[in-house]
Amino acid sequence: MNETVPSARVALSWPREKLLMGLSPREYLSTLVTPFNFVAGLILLVGLPVIAYRFAFGLGAATNLTQVNPWGLWIGLDVLSGVALAAGGYVLACTVHIFGLKQYYPVLRPAILTGLLGYFFVVIGLMVDLGRPWRIPYPVIYSYGVTSVMFLVAWHVFLYLTVQFVEFCPAVLEWLGWSQVRRWALKLTIAATAFGVILSTLHQSALGALFLMAPTKLHPLWYSPFLPIFFFISSIIAGLSMVIVESMLSHKIFHDQVGPGEDVDLDAITLGLGKAASVVLFTYFFLKLLGVADGGHWHLLTTSLGHWFLVEMLVFVLLPTFLFAHGVREGSATFVRGTAVLTVVGIVVNRLNVSLVAFNWNAAERYIPSWMEIVTSITIIAIGLLTFRWVVNRMPVLREYREDQGVREFTGERRAR
Amino acid sequence: MKVSRRTFLKLAGATGASGLLSRPQTASATTPHPDATATLAILVDTTRCVGCRGCEAACSESNRLPPPAMAGEDAVFEEERPTSPEAYTVVNRFHGAEDGGAPTFVKKQCMHCLQPACASACLVGALEKTPDGPVVYHEDRCIGCRYCMVACPFGIPQFEYSKALPYVRKCTFCRDRLAEGKEPACTSVCPSGALQFGTRKDLLEIARTRIYQNPDRYVHRIYGEREAGGTGVLYISGVPFERLGFRTDVGTTPYSQLTWPFLTAVPFVLTLWPPFLIGIYAFTRSRTRAAEAEAGTNEENRHE
Amino acid sequence: MMPHDLPTMYSAKAVEYLIAVAFLLLFIPFWRFVDRERVTAPVAVTTARRWLGQVVDWFAVPSDLYFHPGHAWARVDGGDVVTVGMDDFAQKLVGGVSAIALPEVGARVRQGERGWSLVYDSKSVDMLSPVDGTVVAVNEQAAGSPRPSGRDVYGDGWLLKVKAPRLAANTKQLLSGPVAKRWMEGVCDALRARMSPDLGLVYQDGGLPVEGMARDLDPANWDEIARAFFLT
């Protein structure tokens, strides 16, 4: 597509300018024909009916969950892994606003958006999993089980979504052009950041604390009174790695937005994040070692699940520690990016281990997700990615905002939206 | 250290507000700690159970559930059955005796723990330990998250997977019958005296007396006396409990205590993190300002 | 769960303390391992710091030109013909080259795509064209001879003349005036970042090395450095 928007400013209607980015409906629709959209469309075509089926006929019909295995892929992947990987929001906000490392500002907004959308789609995934999803506000508005760790999780996710929205508000307000409200929202940034860090500390660790209730069901190598700390520290690792991965993809896919004069040294940022990830991974490895020592279950390392535990520790924790360090020392952002992908996989492996593999490890009936559960998870992730793209295309997440000029309009090639 | 007053007030307000979210709690579930001596309980003597399954029939009738499966058929005992959303209690048969003699029949249902894991885990308080003993379920609150099922070490709560509008189901201790001054349905129909209803204190006495008076007949242990911090359903048996399908790894700590340290830590984090974060913020801000000032002076020096 | 008898607890705690001590001992070496980036610049002298502070002033950024972030410039001659060349920074970065491979007259160039290449020592580095259009003239003199650092890159050191039909759209993507100067400051920061603060470069009598800063920084991989700045 080589069409350019004419340089003379034509007065466009609000929906056309804001929603269709200045294109006519026909032009806009023609930009939608891309391979990615085709695949996403296929996913939705299969996934949305499956989700409808789940709601029509219940969890028993759509999932392989049983009385012995009440939690499955949707909890392990969409909720637990999703929350961990959305941690980039609070980690980067803390880095930029609290630690004052302004050079990471260019990746801050995408990280906050990833965090906001991540948590939002975690809630969507949760609602697909709940037996009575319309009652999801109950712990906040109706009945309070204050002794429950999950009550804490519910409240913190609710508050944190609000905080993240406040953090992301400036971008939305810039898109809408409401500069007065925007200036007011910007003032809240430090307080929102601090509040967000506190909330995140608590609910990331609370997700680990959930499993404290099942000492007889969780394999001793993974069960530890320090599960909350493990989940919290690994969420920092997840956040850093996810920001590296997401910024790499965004800069490739949305490169036309990062215009001249704003050319961001993404490589330097990537190396910095990789260095931090390396140090946190190093610490995390020793924390997990302490956990094993505390449990005194060294002999279990020789069992097959013990071997899997070693794989998780060595391949997905210790190896990335040194790969990140190597990449940083060599100044190779590409190397760091590859390691970040490995680390993201490792975080998912860990969350799935705790919730599905090590959980009920000694039960007679084990759980394997049904095809409908897998399709649903993929669909939710696909919708999340599409939303991310929709927002980035319209709002100044990667682009700059100048108060006198509004969001910088861009000419040149257009790709699919 | 210069923190703007506005920022400080915002943070203080945020801390205070979030501090209100975690009120200090007593060790038990939502209700005040039940007096363990006066709580209602059931004693199950497996040496007396003949496997008639009258308790199953009475339970399903009282709770308006479908009649028990394979009633009257011996084949029902061939496989060990769990409870289900439509069978709050089941009787299973075990060949536990060493001499290969008579089988043992064991009734399985909710243990009505003194400090239940399920009630502690429920985020909306749908499962609640009542002061007189039974752990009851409030349908109107349940959101179907199934955390109670994860938490219960006995695997008791059953989820209605087959329904589009599901609930969690388990033995209710016939609370509505208790309100009318009656016994639970199961204990009221037991023909052999295997089931006995009373206060926990009395039933413990009875159990200990039976064991003391018939030391060869019983294993010297009351299952449920200390398991998971003590349960409302007590078992005595002539056969070691691990051979009767009982979980022996449950431990004696009340399950509500397992997350207690974490929940206690929450207000501490809420209190410690704000000054910690604000301190780092102020520190780095003053450092960048000093660096900028120095760079500015250098600029001036160079231009002179 | 672990039995809570004294000997088991004692040994478990002992192991935990060992692990914690091992962590403390290993952490500092690990941090030093991660924090040190491979240093490529030679020669350590104290005057380096003063030189670095003056880097911004080294590179000329005339206000009447349009700059592309890949260090090419364009000057509007009249109508839709522009003169195109490489900027002062690019020249000082690469230094004297054996040749410049320019496109032929009549060739099409596109903004943001390869315009020409700088060749030295069997390595060639591309530079991006600042505008779209057709090449109408080529500076043969610039193409052939080695380039001493004194040549005027903005004057008779021009490289191409291009007929650019979409000039208005193209210049919207280019930098000029104070924005261009700010961009150059950012480039200098990036250059500075490649030099370790401890070690640095010393240029006697204030001049820059004839062989170019890139080759001075890293003789073996000067082309990678150049490509990083030229966005190719």
Would you write up a description of this structure?
The complex is a heterotrimer of chains A (417), B (304) and C (232). Chain A has 417 residues and is mostly helical. Chain A has one domain (52-395): Formate dehydrogenase/DMSO reductase domain (Formate dehydrogenase/DMSO reductase fold), CATH 1.20.1630.10. In chain A, 68% of the residues lie in helices and 1% in strands. Chain A has helices spanning 14-19, 25-31, 35-57, 59-62, 73-85, 88-98, 105-129, 138-141, 149-176, 179-187, 189-209, 227-253, 266-295, 304-330, 333-357, 371-394; strands spanning 401-402, 406-407. Chain B contains 8 helices and 9 strands. In chain B, strands 8-1-9 form a 3-stranded mixed β-sheet. In chain B, strands 2-3 form a two-stranded antiparallel ribbon. In chain B, strands 4-5 form a two-stranded antiparallel ribbon. In chain B, helix 1 (5-19) runs antiparallel to helix 8 (260-303). The longest helix of chain B is centred in the last third of the chain and has 44 residues, at 260-303. Chain C is 37% helix and 19% strand. Chain C has 8 helices and 9 strands. Chain C has helices spanning 6-35, 48-54, 88-94, 140-144, 167-172, 177-193, 213-217, 222-230, and strands spanning 66-68, 72-78, 81-86, 99-101, 108-109, 114-120, 123-128, 133-138, 160-163. In chain C, the strands form 2 sheets. A 6-stranded antiparallel β-sheet of chain C has the order 1-2-3-9-8-5. Chain C has a 3-stranded antiparallel β-sheet with strand order 4-6-7. Classes of the chains: A mainly alpha (417), B alpha+beta (304), C alpha+beta (232). Chains A and B meet through helix 3, helix 4, helix 6, helix 9 and helix 11 of A and helix 1, helix 3, helix 4, strand 6 and helix 8 of B.
CATH fold category name of the largest domain in chain B: Alpha-Beta Plaits
Helix/strand structural class of chain C: alpha+beta
Pairing-aware structural class of the strands and helices of chain B? alpha+beta
Q: What's the architecture of the largest domain in chain B, going by CATH?
A: 2-Layer Sandwich
- The largest sheet of chain C has its strands arranged as 1-2-3-9-8-5
CATH class descriptor name of the largest domain in chain B: Alpha Beta
- Spatial gap, N to C terminus of chain B: 33 Å
Cα gyration radius of chain B (Å): 28 Å
What letter string, H or E per element, gives the SSE order of chain B? HEHEEHEEHEEHHEHEH
Number of strands of chain B: 9
- Terminal CA distance of chain C reads 60 Å
Largest sheet of chain B: 3 strands, mixed
Indicate the multimeric state.
Answer: heterotrimer
Average pLDDT number of chain C: 77
Query: How many domains is the backbone of chain C divided into?
Result: 2
Radius of gyration of chain C: 25 Å
Shape of chain B: elongated
CATH fold topology of the largest domain in chain C: OB fold (Dihydrolipoamide Acetyltransferase, E2P)
Low-confidence stretches of chain C: 39-56, 197-206
Mean pLDDT of chain B: 87
